[in-house]
Design a protein that fits this description.
Layout: H1 18-23, E1 34-41, E2 47-49, E3 57-60, H2 61-74, E4 78-83, H3 103-114, E5 119-124, E6 137-139, E7 142-144, H4 145-161, E8 166-169, H5 176-186, E9 193-200, H6 207-213, H7 234-245, E10 250-254, H8 260-270, E11 274-278, H9 280-291, H10 297-311, E12 315-318, H11 321-329
Parallel strand pairs: 1-3, 1-4, 1-12, 4-5, 5-8, 8-9, 9-10, 10-11, 11-12
Antiparallel strand pairs: 2-3, 6-7
The structure holds ligand PBG.
Ligand PBG is lined by residues 123, 125, 127, 135, 170-171, 206, 209-210, 223, 279-280.
């Protein structure tokens, strides 16, 4: 009788040809897995490259609508919109976040009226709007929690009234999911989805994003009093449990690649739609390494995204979404 060891067992048998490798693949990447984050700016017919993110542009609203059209044609289910707010509109309290005519609201309205069938996700956090670059209200070097939650709730309602489908609080204040959920219910927005940036770490990999939204140069200090310590894992589980209890429909882990263990723990523990954000620094590392000929761009992109799926993510926010969807569709 053959024994369960070499040579009766040869692991390479299932790797020998493309067809068998495809047949035994445990995870797959599909266009349905992709959420595409884009940056919005003022003006018309404006496309302004983000220096820190080669290949990514800030788009005026008319071009954002065209971009959304492309996403719909490729089958991408959802886009995330981030505003590059004019410096004149940035204040200490970030109250431009609550202006119904702000960039992100106008972009949401324009995209939803042209393309009602694509999901629109909007961040809830004050950093695109504050003159100090923090996600919350700053007083004597402290980020005020409860006062920030109040303004975030107004921001969320404002975005929902503009047509946003998914509210994604990325601010990491305590208790905000519950307060926002109650406010949405009270206002009759019973179907609004909440994707909580539930386990969001204080990360160096957000650097290029802060350039894209124009908050990087302003940021005083760091975000370590509200974003998580990269050393911690159990704490992420507590954060996720709280956000689910407070009414989140979906949760997110962020950044992506250095935190795949967290994605796996979350998926195994909670069985809830779980997303990962391949953040700006991850995008720029892959892009720049490929640009310099150090790695193969397409293989590196697909390997990185498959890694998220293997870790248990149901979907990925990625700046590569269009490029990946084009390849998957071809
Ligand atoms: C805002 C926010 C950040 C990102 C998404 N929402 C930056 C930050 O928290 O400093 C980062 C996304 C990226 O790096 O691609 N709170």
């Amino acid at each position: 009788m053959s024994k369960a060891q070499f040579p009766s067992i040869r692991m390479r048998r299932i790797r020998q040809t493309d067809w068998v490798r495809r047949m035994v693949a445990e995870t797959r990447l599909s266009v349905d897995d992709l959420i595409w984050p884009i940056f919005i700016r003022d003006g018309e017919n404006e496309r302004e490259p983000v220096t820190a993110m080669p290949g990514v542009d800030r788009l005026s609203i008319d071009l954002a609508v065209e971009a959304a059209k492309k996403a719909v044609d490729l089958g991408i289910p959802c886009m995330a919109l981030f505003p590059n707010t004019h410096p004149d509109k940035k204040t200490a309290d970030g109250n431009e976040a609550c202006n119904p005519e702000n960039l992100v609201c106008r972009a949401t309205q324009a995209i939803k009226s042209a393309l009602p069938d694509i999901g629109i996700l909007c961040d809830v956090a004050l950093d695109p709007y504050t003159d100090h670059g923090h996600d919350g209200l700053l007083e004597d070097n402290t980020i005020l929690n409860d006062e920030t939650v109040e303004i975030l709730t107004q921001q969320a309602l404002n975005q929902v009234e503009a047509g946003c489908d998914i509210i994604a609080p990325s601010d990491m204040m305590d208790g905000r999911i519950g307060v926002i959920r109650d406010a949405l219910e009270f206002a009759g927005h019973t179907d609004t989805l909440i994707m909580a940036y539930a386990a969001k770490y204080a990360s160096a990999f957000y650097g290029p994003f802060r350039d894209a939204v124009g908050s990087g140069d302003r940021l005083k200090g760091d975000k370590k009093t509200y974003q998580m310590n990269p050393a911690n894992s159990d704490e992420a589980i507590r954060e996720i449990a709280l956000d689910i209890a407070e009414g989140a429909d979906m949760v997110m882990v962020k950044p992506g690649m250095p935190y795949l263990d967290i994605v796996r723990r979350v998926k195994d523990n909670f069985h809830i739609p779980t997303f990962a954000y391949q953040v700006s620094g991850e995008y720029s590392m892959i892009s720049n390494a490929a640009e310099q000929g150090l790695i193969d761009r397409q293989s590196a992109i697909f390997e990185s995204l498959l890694g998220f799926k293997r870790a248990g993510a149901d979907g990925i926010l990625t700046y590569f979404a269009i490029e990946v969807a084009e390849i998957l569709n071809s």
